[in-house]
From TrEMBL:
It comes from Vibrio maritimus. It comes from the Bacteria. Transmembrane segments: none annotated. It is found in: Periplasm. It holds the Pfam family SBP_bac_1. This is N-acetyl-D-glucosamine ABC transport system. InterPro entries: Bact_solute-bd_prot1, SBP. Belongs to the bacterial solute-binding protein 1 family.
Amino acid sequence: MEPELTLDNKDLTMKTVKHLVATTILSATVSATAWAGELVINSDQADPAPKEAWAEIVKRFEAENPDITVKYNLYDKEAYKTTIRNWLVTSPPDVVFWYAGNRMKTFVDRGLLEDVSDIWAENNMAQDFKSAAPAMTVNGKQYGVPYTYYQWGVYYRKDIFEKYGIAEPKTWDELKAAAATLKKNEVAPFAIGTKYLWTAAGWFDYINLRTNGLDFHIDLMDGKVPYTDERVKKTFANWAELVEPGYYLENHASYSWQEAQPFLYNGEAAMYLIGNFIAPNFPDELEGKMGFFQFPVIDLLFLWQKTHRWIRFTSQAKRRTKKTLVSSLHLLLSQRFSSLLTTFYCKSRRIAKRSLLMTSS
């Protein structure tokens, strides 16, 4: 049975929501009279499970709040990354999905995102989301609330590893040795699709983190260190140890990350560095044949650091008042909201078991 999404409990009562919305409408009428009970959300959650979940969330929210119309604009993920730069300026929504860290900071520096530090304070989020807070904070203020997070790592075909006597790599040398064995047996060690370059950026992030550490990586991303720095050259030298022997899928620039998946599933490739959003796509016939390991250690000084990536809800600064955001973000922070999303993400026992496995790993 699906969890009930009701708003009549201790942390978010219907009375409270209606009060907040009424106050917001009044404030919005003074400053931007076009609001009239419409909440605009721009989203990139286009994969099947989150798409279905959000359709249900919007439906239930509108049923319980008939004075509010939710305009939920859904974009293709890759198109979203480009168009957000335009509509944040020309036609900003109330709430957007976006990423933590420097990708958020770019918009904060341009004055396009709202400071929601008071929401963090009111909900004790600094304590509850202690590990996420730095990625959502710019100059001591928070500019988004956590929606979900996912780990990256290496997904691999356990049956192929067993066939060629390969153990899960723990170190860089072991990863290179595994790749050499696979290459010798005409199996592409690493599936990857670089039609959109963020998949290659994921490789750079991990190799740089393992080569130079988290603090250096943050400084590099902040522009405090040039890419001509000798330490960055060392990162690229390490990466070349995988590129030059031809360990990546051939013609990978022709594929998106989704289009590169079949090579892993049909056994033409053995590993894929990617986030766990790939897990629901595993074919039934690979049940029990997929494994996961953390990106191996390169320098013992820099062990496994910060391997989670956060997606957030981010408020837009120039369209609504702060109280408009409170009415929606309180809902999104509720336990029932999270439960509903989990229901759709884990619609079968197989996917639920797989999600649990990947999270525990």
